[in-house]
Specification:
The complex is a heterodimer. Chain A has helices spanning 15-28, 89-101, 105-108, 111-114, 131-135, 153-162, 169-172, 187-200, 213-220, 224-227, 232-248, and strands at residues 3-6, 33-37, 73-76, 79-82, 120-124, 142-148, 175-182, 204-209, 250-252, 257-259. In chain A, α1 packs across α11 and α6 runs parallel beside α8 (187-200). Chain A has a single domain (3-259), classed as P-loop containing nucleotide triphosphate hydrolases (Rossmann fold). Chain A is α/β, with parallel strands linked by helices. By secondary structure, chain B is α+β, with helices and mostly antiparallel strands. Chain B has 3 domains: 2-111 and 389-549, no CATH class; 125-383, Alpha-Beta Complex (Spore Coat Polysaccharide Biosynthesis Protein SpsA, Chain A); 559-650, Thrombin, subunit H (Beta Barrel), CATH 2.40.10. Chain B is built from 24 helices and 18 strands. A 7-stranded mixed β-sheet of chain B has the order 3-2-1-4-7-6-8, with helices on both faces. In chain B, α14 (343-363) crosses α15. The longest helix of chain B has 29 residues, at 83-111. The chains are: A alpha/beta, B alpha+beta. The A-B interface holds A 184-185, 187, 209-213, 216, 228-233, 235 and B 566, 568, 571-577, 592-594, 597, 605, 607, 614-616, 641. Bound molecules: adenosine-5'-diphosphate and magnesium ion. Magnesium ion binds at residues 15-16, 39, 43 of chain A.
Chain lengths: 264, 707
């Protein structure tokens, strides 16, 4: 039932990395997970070993009105991915139009995914603001906002703090940030961590180390821990998963994940 | 008034008992019986219970027996025949009076000791006083001072109330640079007038903290230092000084060259335990130059640190107390430091302490002058008189020579009677001290320490006694290491000569005894002198062995510490692992990285994570066989921040220096331990050569088989 939306004003900050690896970790710990790609780049599927040539996705089913669930692929035990699919400009405009006309389209028309019991949904959004992000407001339990620990993020951090990132105030409380690519060897990087820590406190859900294992694993289409079992980034994302679990009211451990009742 | 009369009455009844016990003369059999009864009684009492009043009873009995001996010596043994016998006889008696005084003073000092508890600071940090931390340095290397300063920065205290200053009397540019890098104050001056005291006084003009914490540049503080000490100053507004122990984590020359790994209390433990705690009970704990906190207002009232003597610390404390300020001693190790490395440096250091304390004795004698209670006078007297030990010690060492070599009797009367009187005195003073301080100083080790310093200190201390205004401050060199074994003959030349003479005199004495037609030698006196000489010789040999410098291999503190670490490889791969151990120069980490990821992609940085912070340090990977259990790293030069983190991990924890107490002393066992230490030290080379030979033979055999 919980829906985690991974979004960020910037690109290249690790949204897709987090979406794929979090999905993998949650599925490993025993829960059914659906990773949904809302980014027209259609890259999320690649992280799950789906071949480059396989270009299907929910975008193609908009005309036929078939449920999106039909386009989902099973990519592992408990683990499903819903690719965006290869799209044209027309198709993307069509999707936006649907979101504009039916604000609770995801909740009602795609309830098999976004309102399903015992299914954890993790949505990977395109960078910046999008109609999709707005449409997901009614189903999102938690926004996870990755940012890189670099100088450019400082102004973004203050924007987020002021609540400028979301349109409606309601969702403003349901977010947490994740500092990605932290590197304590670099002074400015450390300072940004300190800044984020003191400004966001509990809202800072975790930090993920800069670790080439991430890119290497992506290139091999394997989870990070499959490439390097000791990977620092993999460990950090594991910690992050636990933290997100507690924030949403479920416990994550090696083989059980209990989704507490009454989550909405 | 009534109370007073009652007390007087009790005293009138009680006092005659010990007085009679002291002055009644006895035949030697009676005296033997008396002595054995006293000894037996004390041994019984000692085993009865550990209660404090039993200790006091033991002290009283010991004092009575010793006084009885002294009285006997005074009244029955000083009628000497010739001038030469009279001179040496009185000299020996004077030495005995000194030892007797020190015994009484130390019993007084240590019979009641105060175990202070930490006074917690108030919740409200706005009530906390501001603190300046001073790290005075003159010629020590930056590598030493750096750790001390960085550790001071890790002390838990509000940032706006804690200022740290390096007081550099060496005017060294790299120190100023380091201070800026680390973000601490740097204070220097144009001259070096009045050495350390001058340096501190100069800094006091420039800073404003209400309290001043002083760390010699090699005393690394733990993070709780101020949390544990400042509270006392808030509680007692008249408290001027709080001293904490000086703890050394590197072995001093005696430990390294003589203890050879045995678990024996080190030299300082007696002083930084029962002695200072006892002083504290009488409000007479004194300043030891480092690891202490002082109230600025108190210092101002006496015109700053005392600079008239070369031990500015003790003298400053004395002055403060004359002005009615209180002092305190907190027996918690809150800082660790480096001991003097080599014997010769140890001697130079003690030479300064000795001269300084005697200067105080001469220039500002604690018995005289205003402002002290009787108890304070006695405690300070004990401290300032302690360093007179050199000459009496030399006299005790050499007295048997007079009789054995020249037939001079320096004590009138029969040897049997003398022995009968001396036995309870000698035995009980050792036995009672062992009960009182056995966990801090094992029996006879004090004698070894004193003998080691005795010959070198005789002349300097006598010189200062007669011209107390002379005496320059010298800085004890620390932080160097002995890196090869050698024998430091210049430090113990006199000891060797004395040992040779003793050995010769024993043989000579027996020879004389076998020729009664030429020499008049009494068997009793001969045996007494030979026994005395043998005892002297055994302790002398132990002292001489300290000069057999062994290489100090462990240069730094190594800490077993399980902490998460990150390993950064050249390619940017970053892996987690667990730290195994850490020192200032490197670390060992569990090998968690797949071997195929590690090939051609060395680890370049290690990040050690702790609860509070993390530190990444550039490293050089030391190469081991692939798949080794641990990865070993040597730290490259790193920036101040990561260096501070290593210091924080290694030295700053509250429990850094917590150690279990020593086993209780056993008088006999302790003496045999000294013999064993001496034997091991003397045969060290033989054993090493044997081991080497054995190994070589084995290698040869292996080679032979291979061929
Ligand atoms: N912690 C990390 N360490 C190293 N590289 C990372 C890390 N996180 C992300 N990357 C790399 O950064 C790039 C952008 O990541 P991605 O997840 O695609 O960002 P987004 O989806 O926000 O655009 C990718 O090449 C990814 O492998
Ligand atoms: Mg992406």
């Amino acid at each position: 039932m919980p829906v985690i939306s991974i979004c960020s004003p910037k690109g290249g900050v690790g949204k897709t990395t987090l979406a794929s690896n979090l999905s993998y970790i949650f599925s490993q710990s025993g829960t059914k997970v659906m990773a949904v790609d809302m980014d027209p780049q259609n890259a999320l599927r690649l992280y799950f070993g789906v071949s480059l040539a396989d270009e299907g996705g929910f975008i193609a089913s908009l005309d036929s009105q078939a449920p999106w669930l039909n386009s989902a692929l099973n990519v592992g035990r408990n683990l499903y991915v819903l690719p965006f699919g290869k799209s044209t400009y027309e198709m993307r405009r069509n999707l936006d139009q649907i979101f504009i006309n039916e604000p609770d389209y995801l909740k009602t028309s795609q309830s098999a995914i976004f309102n399903a019991p015992d299914l954890l949904v993790i949505i990977d959004f395109p960078p910046g603001y999008s109609e999709a992000l707005k449409a997901a407001a009614c189903i999102t339990d938690l926004y996870v906002i990755p940012l890189n620990a670099d100088a450019a993020s400082v102004s973004l951090l203050s924007q987020i703090k002021d609540g400028d990132l979301f349109e409606n105030g309601e969702s403003a409380n349901k977010y947490c940030i994740v500092l990605n690519q932290v590197d304590n060897r670099v002074k400015i990087n450390r300072e940004i961590q300190d800044f984020a820590r003191s400004n966001f406190q509990d809202k800072l859900a975790g930090t993920v180390h800069l670790d080439t294992s991430v890119t290497e694993a992506a290139a091999l289409q394997v989870p990070i821990s499959g490439f390097n079992p000791s990977s620092a980034a993999a460990f950090d994302i594991g910690m992050l998963a636990r933290r997100l679990g507690t924030m949403l009211g479920f416990t994550v451990n090696e083989d059980t994940m209990i989704i507490s009742q009454g989550q909405d | 008034m009534l109370k007073f009369l009652k007390l007087l009455g009790v005293l009138l009844i009680v006092i005659p008992v010990p007085v009679f016990t002291i002055i009644t003369p006895m035949s030697h059999t009676d005296q033997y019986i008396f002595g054995l009864c006293m000894i037996g009684g004390c041994v019984l009492l000692n085993h009865l219970s550990q209660k404090h009043y039993i200790s006091v009873a033991l002290i009283l009995i010991t004092v009575v027996c010793s006084t009885r001996y002294m009285y006997f010596r005074l009244t029955q043994t000083l009628e000497l025949d010739s001038l030469i016998e009279t001179i040496f006889g009185y000299l020996l008696f004077a030495a005995e009076i000194y030892v007797y005084c020190i015994l009484l003073l130390s019993f007084f000092q240590m019979s009641w000791s105060l175990r202070r508890k930490i006074v917690p600071l108030p919740e409200d940090t706005s009530k906390w006083p501001t603190v300046d931390v001073y790290v005075p340095t003159y010629n020590e290397p930056l590598s030493l001072v750096r750790d001390t300063v960085l550790a001071a920065q890790c002390i838990d205290y509000p940032k706006d109330k804690l200022k740290i200053y390096i007081l550099d009397d060496g005017r060294r540019k790299e120190f100023a640079t380091f201070a800026t890098e680390a973000g601490v104050g740097y204070i220097t001056r144009t001259d070096n007038a009045h050495a350390k005291a001058g340096n501190l006084n100069h800094a006091m003009q420039l800073t404003k903290g209400e309290l001043i914490a002083i760390f010699d540049c090699d005393h690394i503080s733990t993070r709780i230092f101020l949390q544990a000490t400042v509270g006392a100053f808030i509680k007692d507004p008249r408290l001027a000084l709080l001293q904490t122990p000086h703890h050394f984590y590197s072995p001093d020359p005696i430990e390294r060259n003589l203890y050879l790994g045995r678990n024996i209390p080190t030299e300082g433990e007696l002083f930084y335990g029962p002695v200072q705690r006892g002083n504290d009970n009488w409000n007479a704990a004194f300043f030891c130059g480092s690891c202490a906190v002082i109230r600025r207002a108190a210092l101002n009232s006496i015109g700053g640190f005392a600079f008239e003597t070369v031990t500015e610390d003790a003298h400053t404390a004395l002055r403060l107390q004359r002005h009615g300020w209180n002092t305190a001693y907190l027996d918690k190790i809150l800082a660790g430091g480096l001991a003097t490395e080599r014997l010769i440096l140890h001697i130079i250091q003690r030479n300064r302490w000795g001269r300084g304390m005697i200067q105080i004795f001469r220039l500002d004698n604690p018995l005289l002058g205003r402002g002290l209670t009787l108890a304070q006078r006695l405690c300070y007297l004990s401290a300032s008189m302690y360093f007179f030990f050199a000459l009496p010690r030399v006299i005790f060492l050499t007295v048997p020579l007079f009789y054995l070599l020249f037939g001079i009797s320096v004590v009138h009367g029969s040897a049997e009677l003398l022995f009968a009187y001396a036995l309870p005195h000698l035995f009980l003073s050792v036995y009672t001290s062992s009960r009182l301080n056995g966990r801090y100083r094992y029996s006879f080790w004090g004698e070894v320490y004193d003998i080691l310093l005795s010959f070198p200190l005789v002349l300097p201390t006598l010189a200062v006694l007669f011209s107390p205004h002379k005496g320059k401050f010298n800085v004890t060199d620390k932080g160097g290491t002995v890196d090869k074994a050698y024998f430091d003959a210049r430090a113990v030349r006199a000891h060797i000569i004395c040992a040779g003479l003793l050995l010769f005199s024993m043989v000579f004495g027996f020879v004389k005894y076998l020729m009664p037609e030429y020499f008049d030698i009494q068997l009793g006196a001969l045996l007494l002198n030979v026994a005395w000489a043998t005892f002297n010789l055994s302790l002398l040999l132990a002292a001489i062995c300290v000069a057999r410098e062994t290489p100090n291999l462990r240069k730094t503190q190594r800490l077993e510490l399980k902490a998460p670490v990150l390993l950064y490889q050249q390619s940017g791969i970053c892996s987690r692992s667990t730290l195994n151990d850490l020192s200032m120069t490197g670390c060992r980490v569990e090998n968690s990285i797949d071997q195929d990821l590690l090939d051609d992609d060395p680890v370049t940085d290690v990040e050690i994570m702790s609860d509070f912070s993390s530190a990444s340090i550039p490293v050089e990977m030391l190469h081991d066989a692939p798949g080794a259990k641990y990865l070993r790293f040597k730290f490259r030069d790193s920036d101040v921040d990561s260096h501070r983190e290593i210091v924080r991990l290694l030295f700053s924890r509250a429990d850094t220096w917590v150690a279990p107490p020593h086993e209780k002393d056993n008088v006999l066992k302790s003496y045999f331990t000294i013999l064993a230490c001496t034997y091991d030290s003397l045969t060290r080379n033989i054993r090493r050569n044997r081991a080497l030979k054995k190994q070589r033979r084995k290698e040869e055999a292996a080679r032979g088989e291979a061929a």
